[in-house]
Amino acid sequence: MAAPPPFPTRGLRDAEFREGVVTVAHSLRAEYDWDAGQAIGRYLDGLAEGRILGRECRQCGRVLVPPRMFCERCFRPTDRWADVPATGVVTTFSICWVTWDMRPLEVPELPAVIELADGGILHRLGEVDPADVRIGMRVEAVWKPSAEREGSILDIRHWRPVPS
Ligand SMILES: [Zn+2]
Asked: How far is the CA of 38 from the centre of ligand 1 (A)?
């Protein structure tokens, strides 16, 4: 297949912008699919089933969550899938009174890193008073009903403290 002819180009002058000489005469047609990859694809499928899946590396004994097909510590492929309990520990958190686009919130969002097996995921806390959140707090996943899950990290609504 022959290469397309080079697109004729030249620098645009300021006057061309001011006078509206420069216009877009066609619309962009962008069609694409996005592939999560083998490890994250299976992880997302697991979330739709109400399961958290990790990848075990037999050499170092770690279970990687989120899963990866390669152990960066041992520099070798991971060996098998492993179900990971849907409980974890808060390793860091924030109390956010504004949204990402700076709108104030009446009730704060509580993003947190939840440590699961040998990794952590960024998610959000719920069913907890912000003043009671602590690093080291044990939490459990609160899942959407199975009919509402769609293979997304948001199939977990939030993480709440484990009753003691
Ligand atoms: Zn390893």
From this structure: 18
Percent of the chain residues topping a pLDDT of 70: 97
Residue with tokens 């960066």: 72
Cβ–Cβ < 8 Å for 83, 70: no
Distance 109 CA to ligand 1 centre (A): 35
Dist CA 70 CA 78 (whole Å): 5
Please report the DSSP string for 46-70 in residue order. HHHTT-EEEEE-TTT--EESS--SE
What was the pLDDT predicted at 62? 97
Alpha-carbon distance of 53 to 45, in angstroms, equals: 9
